[in-house]
Design brief:
Elements lengths: L1 H30 L16 H8 L13 H5 L3 H6 L5 H15 L16 E7 L11 E5 L20 E3 L3 E3 L3 E3 L5 E4 L16 H28 L1
Antiparallel strand pairs: 1-2, 1-6, 3-4, 5-6
Length: about 230
C-alpha cells in the first residue's frame, strides 16, 4: 500500500518547496526594497526651508531638523516621528507633499525657471508670428536686477497665470509692479491643502447635532409661549 502512495507523495513534495521558495523570495524582496528617489530642487523651491514654508501648516518651524535637502526626502514616517513632528496628521501631510513633489504635482510657481531671493517676475509676451490667434501670454522672465549673460531662447508660460485685458496678469499671489508685469513671492502656506471645516459636527454627527438643535429651538418656543400666557 505504501508503494502505491509513494508517487502521490513525490508529486506533492515540489509544491511545498515552491511555497517555501515563494515566501522566502517575498521576504527577501521586502527587505531590499529601494528607497523612493530624491528629487532635485527647483528654482522656486531651492531648499528645505522654502519647501516647508510653501506647504504650510506650521511645518516651517521644523526646517532646522533637516540639515540637507536629501535628508528630508530620505525620511519615512518613523524617522519623522523620532524627530518630534507631531501629531501624526502632520507627518502624513508632509509625506504626502513629498510624494507629490516627486511626481511633479506642484503648486503655483513650481514651474518657474527664473527666481531671485524667492521672487519671480512675470510679464506679457506676444505669441510667435506664425500664431493665428493674437493671444497674449504671461511668461516668467529673468529678474531685472540679474540679467542673464545671454538672453534665454525660450520663456516658460507658468500654469495658473493668464493675461486679462491689454496687459493685466492674473494668477495666485500675483502682485502688480510699478512698471509692467507682476511679481510672485514665496509665501507661507502658498501650496497648503486647506482642511475642511466641519459643519454641525461633520458627516457622522450631523443628523444628531441638527436634531438636538431643533429640539432646543422647539423647547425654547414652548417656554416662550408659556411665559407669555402668565
Amino acid at each position: 500500500m505504501f508503494e502505491r502512495l509513494r508517487p502521490c507523495l513525490l508529486l506533492r513534495a515540489p509544491a511545498s518547496n515552491m511555497l517555501k521558495s515563494a515566501v522566502s523570495q517575498t521576504r527577501w524582496l521586502h527587505r531590499t526594497r529601494q528607497q523612493p528617489p530624491i528629487p532635485e530642487p527647483r528654482p522656486f523651491v531651492p531648499d528645505v526651508q522654502t519647501f516647508l514654508t510653501l506647504i504650510g501648516r506650521g511645518l516651517s518651524k521644523h526646517a532646522s531638523k533637516f540639515p540637507t535637502w536629501e535628508s528630508l526626502f530620505a525620511m519615512g514616517g518613523q524617522e519623522l516621528k523620532q524627530l518630534g513632528i507631531e501629531p501624526v496628521r502632520q507627518r502624513r501631510y508632509l509625506l504626502r507633499w513629498m510624494q507629490k513633489y516627486r511626481n511633479g504635482n506642484l503648486g503655483p510657481g513650481g514651474d518657474f525657471e527664473f527666481v531671485k531671493d524667492g521672487e519671480a517676475i512675470l510679464r506679457v509676451a506676444l505669441p510667435p508670428a506664425n500664431e493665428v490667434r493674437p493671444t497674449k501670454w504671461a511668461v516668467n522672465v529673468p529678474h531685472p536686477d540679474e540679467p542673464p549673460a545671454e538672453p534665454p531662447k525660450t520663456l516658460v508660460r507658468p500654469l495658473g497665470y493668464k493675461v486679462i485685458g491689454a496687459s493685466q496678469i492674473a494668477g495666485p499671489y500675483a502682485r502688480m509692479l510699478k512698471g509692467q508685469g507682476v511679481s510672485v513671492k514665496v509665501t507661507e502656506g502658498m501650496w497648503e491643502d486647506k482642511r475642511g471645516r466641519k459643519i454641525d459636527g461633520g458627516e457622522r454627527r450631523r443628523a444628531e447635532v441638527r436634531f438636538k438643535k431643533r429640539s432646543a429651538e422647539r423647547r425654547a418656543e414652548r417656554e416662550a409661549e408659556f411665559l407669555a400666557k402668565l
